[in-house]
Design a protein that fits this description.
With 409 residues, the chain is an alpha+beta fold. The protein has one domain. It contains 11 helices and 13 strands. It has helices at 46-54, 64-74, 110-119, 131-144, 150-153, 193-204, 210-221, 252-261, 270-278, 313-325, 331-340, and strands at 36-38, 84-90, 98-105, 154-161, 173-182, 228-234, 243-248, 284-291, 299-304, 342-345, 358-359, 368-383, 390-403. The chain has a 10-stranded antiparallel β-barrel with strand order 2-3-4-5-6-7-8-9-12-13, surrounded by 5 helices. A hairpin with a 7-residue loop joins strand 2 (84-90) and strand 3. It is globular, with a radius of gyration of 20 Å.
Amino acid sequence: MNGFLSQSIRFGDPLLTTRDSSFINGKFHLDDDLIIRNFPSTGVNTVDYLDFIEKYVPEDLISQNNFSQLKNIAGNFSGDLTSYFGFESRLGSSKAKVDFSFAVSSNRGEREALVNLITKNNLPDTFYMHPEWQQLSNFTLVWMDPNSILHDKVLGVWFEFDEASFFETSVPCVFINTIPIKTCSINTISQYSWLTDVAIPLLIGHRLSKKMEEQLFDCIQKMPPRTSIFQVGTMLSRSTYGLRLVINRIRSNQIIPYLKSIGWSDKSEGLSSFIEELEKYVTRFVLHIHINGKVDPKIGVECSFYSGSGGRKKDWSDFLTYLVEKGLCLPEKQDSLLRFTGVELEDITNDYNLDSFIPSVKLPDNGYSRASVRFISHIKIVYQPGHPLEAKAYLGVREYGIPNNGGNY
């Protein structure tokens, strides 16, 4: 069994509690040139995983010094807190540095582990000097409460630590993975009041202004049919005020009309022609917008592949070659990304059907064998009128599982 996991599940999607058959099938897509290696022993934490994968990661992608920084950050979050973490790499930079993120799911006790870590003062004392961590504590306590509206509305939380601030602050940006927030009429927008009345105020420490709340609801109401917001980001570690909205299921030809409908403008019309180029290489788009009373000119367009139409190594290689030709990716970064991917199996003695592997947070008990997968999740193109384009790659390391009896859940 040789191969690696393609982008069958996006970087932020693993916290969903139900499968969406149109783009999540939980399956491995295998190539023939990568070796499946033995899985690390049981009882490991994120630092152990970082130690384990370090020898497989090209040093021009993540330097030894950067790895040490990542371990220092990850070492503050002990216990069974996460089964999925990742890195953000700037493709146009020769620096072997990445940002670090990890996900906390509402499933399999990860949420409870987070509450235990924060509320029992198990984080470094310096963390509690920042009011943002008190806000995170308040949020997680409400999130864990089965009687709270957030208990079932928030499927998970992403913590994102910027490399530039590793030594300056211990405050992360926080993205809440919500149930799909879909377009609706003005008469039914109140169904999302839990977001503006409870979730966001807990995270940022105060209510949104009336103007911001109205703008958020305007962005929801004007979303194209069948699209949805599935992540809402609060940039706690940055001086930037506002919210990041991550919009899923948007088609390439819907991006520009939607942006214009909510007040974004681009006199050069450069984004429109660029998207037409991207359509030749990728099949899935996810839109990032930042709102702060107005729509920020800088937007992000995630590029990847729907599970049934690509995501194999050749697809990523072709797309990265295009980015190299556009001057958005250094050739050495392309090579490093493709060499990053790999799979480790806990038990290699059984002839498993790899289609049976599913994210570990979806498994109902511990009666399964694990697989650790390193993969390219997506590449985000950052566009701002009048400024150079920027490309960032998002790499994932995630635990999957299969029933020990070889069956399916």
